[in-house]
Predict the 3D structure of the following.
Amino acid sequence: MSVPAAILISGRGSNMLALIEACKAPDFPAHIVQVISNRPQAPGLDIARQHGIDTRVVDHTDFASRAAFDQALGRALRESGAHLVCLAGFMRLLGPDLVHAWHGRMINIHPSLLPAFKGLNTHERALQAGVSEHGCTVHFVSAGMDEGPVIGQESVPVKPEDTPQTLARRVLEAEHRLYPACLRALAQGRITPQSPQIQS
Ligand code: GAR
């Protein structure tokens, strides 16, 4: 049985593509029913279409309030038929009602080893902090920004010669491995917010 999943994006869509590619494997337990962007110009929308995936835009600038945007997004997600939602570079904070409605079924990827470096510019901040290890995290979405039970993390070394760009590239490669593995575990029913860690 394959679980229908939607992906929310705001931009480039490289994690989205990693999930789309993973779902092509015959034994993958999920399939992507729709990609939804809050930005009409998100490059990821074209990439999704090129892979035959249905796309939809729910433009946050069309709504007077955050709550109205959340309601429209919630409606779009229900209409997509998705049972799971993957945030992949989706750069809007979601309100508690929407997060609650998708409790245990909505996951996010973040480019740091949470709880370190929540928010933006994680690679610059990791270099400034002088950490020797950096990486990425997939977690269940909760109302706080970049919070919620951690499903999986992959760390990468920070090298002395790293710039934010070289570090970002190394972390992104890890993201593209980690996210499909976490979606697989979620779709197989192997993890919940109460027991979120993937057991290998
Ligand atoms: C990724 O690095 C993702 O982890 C990050 O945005 C990038 C999107 O790239 N997400 C966040 O910072 C969320 N807090 P992509 O569009 O190529 O997947």
The chain has a mean pLDDT of 97. The CA atoms of residues 91 and 124 lie 18 Å apart. The first helix runs from residue 14 to 23.
